[in-house]
């Protein structure tokens, strides 16, 4: 099966699997954008492959040993907010009843949507994110991506979760 088209310089090692404890982010996802995100600690971001381009990716995510859901993830400096530290913010396409800070987030990045860019208004940023979410939903329904939802990576033993690994 031919690989999915990718932009120059985009992470060559897709799918890319990572997990880490959910930490508090900048407090903007839910409050300013209405799009809640789960944030990885710096060490998870720092351990991304060296060939990872900043931008918007899509894939699958689960919290702890919970169900696997579609997600989009922003990797980069969020130019609109002028961050000075690279971040990795995951929006899971599922409504959770409560926050899950401290839980283990499992992420499989399967494809690339677009480079990160600056926006002239909060409204245009929100509109772009909603467009990314809709595009990711469509792409994740493709058979080559759908099969990764069942990957063994998401079969996390309870003992692993409790040990925080």
UniProtKB/TrEMBL annotation:
Listed InterPro entries: Riboflavin_kinase (IPR023468), Riboflavin_kinase_bac/euk (IPR015865), Riboflavin_kinase_dom_sf (IPR023465)
Pathway: Cofactor biosynthesis; FMN biosynthesis; FMN from riboflavin (ATP route): step 1/1
Protein role: Catalyzes the phosphorylation of riboflavin (vitamin B2) to form flavin-mononucleotide (FMN), hence rate-limiting enzyme in the synthesis of FAD. Essential for TNF-induced reactive oxygen species (ROS) production. Through its interaction with both TNFRSF1A and CYBA, physically and functionally couples TNFRSF1A to NADPH oxidase. TNF-activation of RFK may enhance the incorporation of FAD in NADPH oxidase, a critical step for the assembly and activation of NADPH oxidase.
Cofactor(s) needed for function: Zn(2+)
Riboflavin kinase domain span: 11-141
Pfam families, per database record: Flavokinase (PF01687)
SUPFAM superfamilies: Riboflavin kinase-like
Catalytic activity: riboflavin + ATP = FMN + ADP + H(+)
SMART domains: Flavokinase
Coiled-coil stretches: none
GN (gene name): RFK
One of the GO BP terms on file: FMN biosynthetic process
Protein name in the entry: Riboflavin kinase
Domain of life: Eukaryota
Example of a GO cellular component annotation carried by this entry: mitochondrion
Annotated signal sequence range: none
Enzyme type, top EC level: transferase
């Amino acid at each position: 099966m031919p690989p999915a088209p990718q932009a120059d310089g985009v992470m060559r090692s897709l799918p890319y699997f990572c997990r880490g404890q959910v930490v508090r982010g900048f407090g903007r996802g839910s409050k300013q954008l209405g799009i809640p995100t789960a944030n990885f600690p710096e060490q998870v971001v720092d351990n991304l492959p060296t060939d990872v381009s900043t931008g918007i990716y899509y894939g699958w995510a689960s919290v702890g040993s919970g169900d696997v859901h579609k997600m989009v993830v922003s990797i980069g400096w969020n130019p609109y907010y002028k961050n000075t530290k690279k971040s990795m913010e995951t929006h899971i396409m599922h409504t959770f009843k409560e926050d899950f800070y401290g839980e283990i987030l499992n992420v499989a990045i399967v494809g690339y949507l677009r480079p990160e860019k600056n926006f002239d208004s909060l409204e245009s940023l929100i509109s772009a994110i909603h467009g990314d979410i809709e595009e990711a939903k469509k792409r994740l329904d493709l058979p080559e991506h759908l099969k990764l939802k069942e990957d063994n990576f998401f079969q996390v033993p309870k003992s692993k979760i409790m040990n925080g690994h």
